[in-house]
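Per reviewer request, we include the raw input and output of the structure prediction for the construct analysed in the revised manuscript.
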Amino acid sequence: METQRPETNDLRRSLIAGRILVFVAIAFSALTLRVAVTAFTPLAARISDEVGFSSTVVGVFGMLPTAMFALFGLFTPALGKRFGLERTALLAMLLAGIGMLTRALVSDVWSLLFLSAVALAGMGIGNVVIPPLVKRYFSDRLAVMSSIYITMVQLGTVVPALIAVPVADSHGWRTSLGIWAVVGFVAAVPWIAIIADRRGRDRTDRTGVAPHNAQRKGKTWKTSLGWGMAGMFGMTSLITYSMFTWVPKLLTDAGASSAFAGSMVGVFALVGLISAFAAPTLCARIANPFPIVVGCALCYVVGFLGLLIAPMSAPVLWIVIVGLGPSTFPMSLTLINLRTRSQVGSSALSGFTQGIGYTVACVGPLLFGVLHDTSHGYALPFGLLFVAVGVVLVSSWHACKPRYLEDMWPRS
């Protein structure tokens, strides 16, 4: 019987240890990607009382996340090409950590805005760079890893919102806002170790072939797949951010208490944890997951009609049903890897999808509010959301087709 040579066993152990380290890095990075947003929102009024800023500035803070995610969604593929995926991920976590820490120390509104933008820039970079990193290191476990990192993103959305006020009551808003910097700095540590381990191999892929010699590049914006992904992701984000922003007012206008209305935002976010875990696996198992999108659209329609016609008849039910609709969000992030053959393609599709998508999402809550103020009701704002659902369906038809981005790039 042939025995394993010691050097073979050492190499295998080294590869396993390396993958574990990358797993930890991706998981903590994903946890970081929303904490600057949801740690701030519950404390906005309290911070405003001390720092002093108007409701208009609160609105600016509300639009800042999607604006920064959009901007750095478009620029991150170039950063990844220039510095490598791992170094770009490290930069993202350091920006997030530094921004979250320093904004908790300032006492004027412009510094608070600028440093929040720094933190959100890091998170915008992280949004785009994580999918190609999953593809680089876990191409044999795409569904599982997508489920894990999207679930961590959802946890980073829910947990800060739940504990922000209690921590502020006990230790002050600066502590409540600043403690999340620890997550960003902790996420940076394994990337430092990974970069050190990859020294001398940064310009090669896992087969040892230089990416620019092995992989063609093209213009994602010239493909129906690219626009389908951007539309699916963007309209899902528009709906989601509109719900986060307007569900409390909608329910209080219908007679609910402020506490109950606020808790429904938490319910909406918690339902997202279910889809974050289930949707990537379903996507990976079904060649064309468009029927899942149709189910999500039906959830949107039923939930929106309930909230519009009889919001207080079964508010928890309507919120839970609507909360299942954004399953198209984790589906979009999973399809970034399922519809590309290479890290170059994954990075390009991730940047285009999220750059365009978050640009669209920026206007959702604002336009919802304009329509509400103009009509003095919710019929027109929900009309906007129904149109968005229609765009999700049309876009997803193109995004879900079993094909690859690189095959749609012109050969040269």
